[in-house]
Amino acid sequence: MDTAIDIVLKFVAITVAFVVVLLVVAYTVLAERRVLGFIQGRLGPNRVGYGGILQPFADLLKFILKEDIIPDKSTRFVYSLAPVIATMAALMTMIVYPFGPEIRIPFTSITIPLVIAHFDVGLLYVLGITSVGVYGIALAGWSSNNKYSLMGGLRSAAQMISYELALGLSLSGVIMLAGTLDLAQIVDQQSAWHGIRWNIIYQPLGFVVYLIAAIAETNRVPFDLPEAETELVAGFHTEYSAMKFALFFLAEYINMFTVSMLATTLFWGGWNVPFIDLFLERGSFLFGLISALGFLFKVCVFLFIYIWLRGTLPRFRFDQLMSFGWKILLPLALLNIFITATLIYFVS
Amino acid sequence: MLALLFILFAGMAIGCALAVVAQRNPLYNAIALIGVFISLACLYVTLAAPFIAAVQVIVYAGAIMVLVVFVIMLLNVEHEERRRNRLKFLVPAAVVLAAVLIAEVAFMLVSVTNPPPAVSNIGLTGSIGAQLFTRYLLPFEITSILLLMAIVGAMTLARRGGLLSSDARLIPGVQQLPLSMVDPRAAPDDLRLVETDSSEEAARLLGVDPRDTERD
């Protein structure tokens, strides 16, 4: 009986997390369009609802109502499978992030943790699922039977393999400091001293490498070569329309969101908000709420950086991208591991 | 509960493995193989070995199979032609090996009866790390040296085309090349000529990418 209740609770938690994440993602799209408009000296969408707040739903409705075109010469099965893989891989990482501390529901003695799955290898799980996500893009490029799509798919596969190494190695410093791969424990270790224990202070180089590699992993400007519209029409999703296109779009934004959550969790203290434990009791409802909101705020700052970069930077050339990844980012990540290991050896 | 999950993932693994063998399209083979790796990873999780599961997904599904898919896409391999006559002798060998495997599994099922310990932390990251860096340090280091050698070997093989100087040019049309330029085993002063049809073929024989030399 207990296991049945457990399973139901997990499903509820997963549903809540997915809905919250999808809402945030929907509004990231709107924020991106408004902020880009602001950067480029125009208004952006502001007509649907007050200041455009219903725009994401209008977009969604449009995606649903459009005709779903499957090209005649495409490989049908793989063509339909690719967006599913992309979205699923993006969503699956959501379950291991600690969104907040344990909270007690008011007027009861029930405490619930604000994390769905407590996983001994949470960080490796995230890296593994992220690395599976590349199949969505690669297979989409291949199955469309279109040279631009194929080029986009190949570029994306090459890019993601190259930057995954730097990404993984840049996280090694944090893992060495924490001594665990469990994301909840890594956050707990950063909770003392009101922000002085946040890993960003001890791992600045690792954070910079992670941020750059993460932007490349999510195929965003200035690393958006898989969909470089000036040369490849739209890259791997040239042939996709309606909901299938929407799924790729969704996957890209969810990936941005998860990558930002990982940066927050590992480097910026996760849900820890400095100084609130002076006023509030740890474990109370208000404490949990403020912590979770703090987590969301930090993630949103990273999402804003993504949008800001898109409005600011030009795109890399492909050979620049490759040599930057292999010759600069990867050695820097290795250097970070070396420095961290040396410091840990001499300090402890 | 665990039995249900086992049946689910084992069934997926077997189904995908059959698809790996049965499908004719190389890309479908690759996708099915990814399916096998992922279902195996799920089985590892149910066996309380999350570290192995994560590494299985990262290394096999996330890295090696991406390279395989990449190559299939790059070469745009079409359906494999049916080669009925070649490798026929492998059929009886396969039957014998399958019989041995089934006999082994049957033996395991019959003879091993004692249940495994209920709680164990052998599969957790901490215990694996401690074992790797103490008891199994030597095998661990030897494996890493082996991998390093493989990387150096791959680099050496890939760089064989770099024998040409950087300002070498490919001339279109039929051309004659000294044998020593084409065959690395020939003596360096072997000046017997080899004829090729096109610059692409010459480039292929020399192991260089024709686009590389044409570009600048």
Helix content of chain B: 55-70%
Uncertain stretches of 5 or more adjacent residues of chain A? none
Percentage of residues assigned to helices of chain A: 55-70%
Domain module tally of chain A: 1
Mean pLDDT of chain A: 84
Question: Runs of chain B with pLDDT <50, length 5+?
Answer: none
Rg of Cα set of chain A? 21 Å
Q: Output the structural class of chain B.
A: mainly alpha
| Extended strand count of chain A | 2
Please report which band the strand proportion of chain A falls in: under 5%, 5-15%, 15-25%, 25-35%, 35-45% or over 45%. under 5%
**Terminal Cα span of chain A:** 48 Å
Strand content of chain B: under 5%
CATH topology of the domain at 1-78 in chain B: Four Helix Bundle (Hemerythrin (Met), subunit A)
User: CATH superfamily of the domain at 1-78 in chain B, called what?
Assistant: NADH-ubiquinone/plastoquinone oxidoreductase chain 6, subunit NuoJ
Side by side, the strands of the main sheet of chain A go: 1-2
Explain what you see.
The complex is a heterodimer of chains A (348) and B (216). Chain A has one domain. Helices cover 67% and strands 3% of the residues of chain A. A two-stranded antiparallel ribbon of chain A has the order 1-2. The termini of chain A are far apart. The mean pLDDT of chain A is 84. Among the domains of chain B are: 78 residues, Four Helix Bundle (Hemerythrin (Met), subunit A) (Up-down Bundle), CATH 1.20.120.1200; 53 residues, no CATH class. Chain B is mainly α and 216 residues long. Chain B is elongated, with a radius of gyration of 25 Å. The longest helix of chain B is centred in the N-terminal third of the chain and has 26 residues. Chains A and B meet through helix 4, helix 5 and helix 6 of A and helix 2 and helix 3 of B.
